[in-house]
Amino acid sequence: MLGTAEAMTDERPPLTEASRPVLPRYARLHYDKVRQRHVLLVPERVLVPDDTAIEILQLCDGKRTIGDIVDLLAAKYVADRDLIGGDVIVMLEDLRGRDFLVVVEGD
Question: CB 3.0-4.6 Å disulfide test: which of 17, 18, 27, 58 passes with 67?
Answer without folding.
Answer: 17
